[in-house]
Amino acid sequence: MLNQTPIWKYILVIFMLGLCGLYALPNLYGEDHAVQISSGRDTTVSQSLADDVKQSLDQANINYKNVEFEDERILVRLPDSDTQLVVREKLDDKLGDDYFVAMNLAPDTPDWLDELGGTPMKLGLDLRGGVHFLMEVDMNSAIDTSVGGIVDEFRDRLREEKLRYRTVRQAGQAVDIIFRDAEVLDSAQFFLRNNYPDMSFDERDDLTLRATFSEQRLAEIRDYAVKQNITIIRNRVNQLGVAEPLVQKQGQDRIVVQLPGIQDTAKAKEILNATATLNFRLVDQDGDVRDALSGRIPAGSELLYSRDGQPVLLKKQIMLEGSHIIDASNSLDENGFPQVNINLDGKGGSKMSNVSKENVGKPMATVFIEYKATDERGPDGKLIFEKKEEVINVATIQTQLGSSFRITGIDSAGEARDLALLLRAGALIAPIQIVEERTVGPSLGKENIELGMQAITYGLIAVLLFMLVYYRVFGIVANVALIANVVMIVGVMSMIPGATLTLPGMAGIVLTVGMAVDANVLIFERIREEIRDGRSPQQAIHFGYDNAFSTILDANITTFIAGMILFAVGTGPIKGFSITLMIGIVTSMFTAIIVTRVLVNLIWGGKRVKKLAI
Amino acid sequence: MAFQILKLDETVNFMKLRIPAMVFSTILIFGSIASLAVNQLNWGLDFTGGTVIQVSYPDGANLELVRDELTAADFPDAVVQNFGSSQEVLIRVAPRDDLQAEIIGDMVMAALREGTANVEMQRIEFVGPNVGEELTEQGGLAMLVALICILIYVAMRFEYRFALGSVGALAHDVIITLGLFSVLQLEFDLTVLAALLAVIGYSLNDTIVVSDRIRENFRKVRKSDPEEIINISLTQTLNRTIVTSLTTILVLLALFFKGGALIHGFATALLFGVFIGTYSSVYIASSVALFLGVSKEDLMPPEVEKEGEDLEPL
After folding, report:
1. A437, A565, A613 member nearest B146 (Cβ)
2. B97 lies in the same domain as B142
3. What is the torsion angle, in degrees rounded to the nearest 10, for the CA atoms of residue A594, residue A595, residue A601 and residue A602?
4. I want to staple A478 with a disulfide (CB 3.0 to 4.6 A). Which of A178, A520, A594, B39 is the partner?
């Protein structure tokens, strides 16, 4: 018999709608203003810390909804944004040095939904407010720095090998070595080729040997410059107290930084642009740490602390500045213990060699210096930065050190990696520049959500009314499908972790609402035609759906192509638009073809129908 | 039969008007190109680079005062205008050589705060000049790639004449919509670009529906005068074309009036695009296919074509 629905189709429809409906549900619950505490570099949050927090909030008579400990973080839910500010400040004072305290909006999803992995849609920065920066790494200076380092290195190595040269000089992104006679040039070329496999050498007129980086090495330099900047930016973003920051490479030489909820962009920029350096210093072994702790610090020394809070007494005199570091990497030594390899530029190498010769057997400390922003501003309105020095490593000098040496005796591979990262952060890095900024204030974000919701509501109501009047009972069927479609879009958007709802995305939903009925219009017009051609109602329904199908498919695939291209080239909000558009195409095909068919069959299928209300 | 927009018992002779329609479209296209050449587009910040600051004055904005404040703060060339309502003000500052571009927004905010304490920052957007240039390139490229992909798909699914017809119609829609933005000097930003791609999607939707019907009728209807068959197909799909355009226009009107100032350009481009797209799928796509000499034989299912390949035409 015509127009009967097989049982699997019922199951499919119920399952899909149920699933999407379930995952769309978290969007109905609001969000709580919250303060989030997450682990610092050396600390982890725990239930006991949560209890502490609870206690101190009780003591301070602050009204809170609850304090929960999950997913490695503590979330303090608060009734309003004013309390949120107060609590953030209070907790930051109390815990700020060891933990990251950030303001956040925490979805108020009920526990049972949370267990199922239900989360609301992620809102783009244009809807929740915040800053988006696009930063560009200055690749020319990254390469320049590397070339400069090579110039120094060549001088040293050639001198060591007693290969006499006239000059070594930088020529753009290449190095020219000029010799006095051809014989030396040949042996130098032989030597250099063997020792620098990642450079290419070519002989030019006038006894000149030109060395250039291979493409691969250049790519490495670029990649390294971007990675290093990302590492540094990540460290700094943590200072900003942002709950869900995003720091990501984009293209070859750009970095995207997204800081939701940040309002003071000037402060954000200053912090991101602050500098970090490091230096090597000798540990003062003559002085006594305990004396120093009680205030009797020997002249020429100072007391600093290591990461884990151990006091270390250091000589004030600096052995070497971190700007001489060209590269630092972690690896394993012969015995399988973690180590960090450090390469210095030529000047740094000879300096290090001199100082270390006199201090073999003595401990050397690596000090990391960061400028952290305080909340105070100077008379010129700029943020005041506080210099923060921290000992990140102490190692004994085993032998005279040269331009490349290593630090051993590190506890774990993880620690070696961190140390290498920090060492690189102290090295001269390629400067970055902000090339794009998009800041949306929190009130505009809220307004955008409201406007978007209004547009969706009005658009939806208008289409629902139109379909009802124009297609009567079939119109009701189409309307059910249309609402199911909106629910499915929201459900799918909530399920896909990377999907973000933006204002253009909301426009995409509105547009989808208007265009999604097209499939039903096609089917219904076709049914009307079939009836005009004299078919029985059952046959009209059957052929109407059948004949319209390939048209609907073709039309949707082509629109989908446009959506994919938009996704590929667009950024931020535009990507959001293309995502909703593409999801909308897929879900609307499901609801407009399958869901309506099930409903139509349910209403008319297998019955004696004389006349269709279409 | 229930409520219906058009009751069409007889085939409408759409193709009778195809020459005037071609002339009309040609005039519009050349007009658009001329305007694009002379007036160019009013490129938005996304493409030109520069800084846009949107602020809100809860007690209503005094544009003259804002201008004076900015002139005093050494931004005499800043463009100040209302945005959406009398409280909202939009300030544009062109890129400058003497200032680091990324701090312009903060400087402007500082200057305004000095004048009026309760001014509220709504949005700061700054785009470096290189980023803008790249976007323009990427945007143009996206359009081209979209058109080519669609051309390939339609050529595979239908026939190259239809593919050329539909891509011709799409290019027609895009050029004329661009022309409208140029003539009215509406701001062309990224959302408008997105809208244009959505227009491509929409107009294509229409064109495919019509082409699909033409193919079906070529196979089904005995009469094989292409012009007649196209007319029949257009008449059959006319109701659907109108209904879908109507629902789409309804939601776009909601977006235009309720979606706020940020989405205005988007809604405008789409509203206009839907009109022109509906027209072009009726007149341009089929006229081009007809002009290129589409015939019954071209649209027969592939098996049939294979059989007939080696035979002499009768």
Report:
1. A565
2. no
3. 150
4. A520
Q: Are A420 and A519 in the same domain?
A: no
Q: Considering the domain boundaries, does residue A324 fall inside one?
A: yes
Nearest-CA distance from A248 to chain B in Å?
Answer: 17
Boundary (domain end) residue, out of B127, B159, B194: B127
- Give me the phi and psi of A360, to 5 degrees please: -60, 135
- State the residue range of the domain holding B84: 50-127
If DSSP states are collapsed to H, E and C, what string results for A545-562? HHHHHHHHHHHHHHHHHH
CA atoms within 13 A on the CB side of A276: 26
Both structure tokens of A608: 């004696």
- Please give the average per-residue pLDDT across A525-529, as a whole number: 91
CB count within 10 Å of CB A450 equals: 12
Radius of gyration of the CA atoms of chain A, in A:
33
Distance CA A548, CA A560 (A): 18
Confidence of residue B314 (pLDDT cuts 50, 70, 90): very low
Q: Are residues A186 and A169 in the same domain?
A: yes
- Out of B108, B127, B146, pick the residue that ends a domain: B127
CATH of the domain at A77: 3.30.70.260
Range of the domain at A202: 139-218
Name the residue among A126, A514, A554 with its Cβ closest to that of B251. Answer: A514
The pLDDT of residue A386 is 67
Do B123 and B232 lie in a common domain?
no
Domain-ending residue, one of A218, A236, A264 = A218
Among the ranges given (A162-176, A445-459, B135-149, B258-272), the one the predictor scored with the smallest mean pLDDT = B135-149
> Domain check: are B97 and B243 in the same one?
no
Pair B68, B78: CB distance under 8 Å: no
Torsion of CA B231, B232, B235, B238, to 10 degrees: -90
The answer to whether B216 and B262 are in contact (CB under 8 A) is: no
SS (H, E, C) A189-240: HHHHHHHCCCEEEEEECCCEEEEEECHHHHHHHHHHHHHHHHHHHHHHHHHC
**How many beta-carbon pairs under 8 angstroms link A with B?**
231
Percentage of chain B surpassing pLDDT 70?
A: 91
> How far is residue A245 from each of residues A69, A85, A375, A475, measured CA to CA in Å?
20, 19, 20, 46
Q: Which of A432, A287, A307 is nearest to A368 (CA)?
A: A307
A242 domain residue, yes or no = no
Closest Cα of chain A to B27: distance in Å?
A: 27
d(CA A15, nearest CA chain B) in Å: 29
Q: pLDDT digit string (tens) for B152-203?
A: 888 888 888 888 888 889 899 999 999 999 999 999 988 898 888 888 888 8
Q: Do B87 and B156 share a structural domain?
A: no
pLDDT digits (tens, 9 = 90+) for B286-305: 888 888 887 777 766 655 44
* Candidates B105, B208, B243; nearest CB to A470: B243
Contact A602, A5 (CB under 8 A): yes
Summarised one tens digit per residue, pLDDT across range B243-291 is 999 999 999 999 999 988 888 999 999 999 999 999 998 888 888 888 8
Give backbone dihedrals phi and psi of A85, rounded to 5 degrees, phi first.
Answer: -60, -45
B148 & B113 share domain: no
**Does residue B226 sit in the same domain as residue B111?**
no
Look up the pTM and report it: 0.77
Q: What is the CATH number of the domain that holds A208?
A: 3.30.1240
| Cβ-proximal residues to A335 (8 Å cutoff; 6+ apart), any chain | none
Number of domains in chain B: 2
- Give the dihedral of Cα atoms B132, B138, B143, B148; nearest 10 deg: 170
Determine the residue of chain A that is closest to B267 in CA distance.
A507
Average pLDDT rounded to a whole number, residues A189-198: 88
A589 and A450 within one domain: yes
**Residue A413: both structure tokens together:** 């591979």
Say if A330 falls within a structural domain. Answer: yes
- Tell me, yes or no, whether A509 lies in a domain: yes
Q: Which residue has the tokens 């931004």?
A: B75
> Would you place residue B309 in the very low, low, confident or very high pLDDT band (cuts 50, 70, 90)?
very low
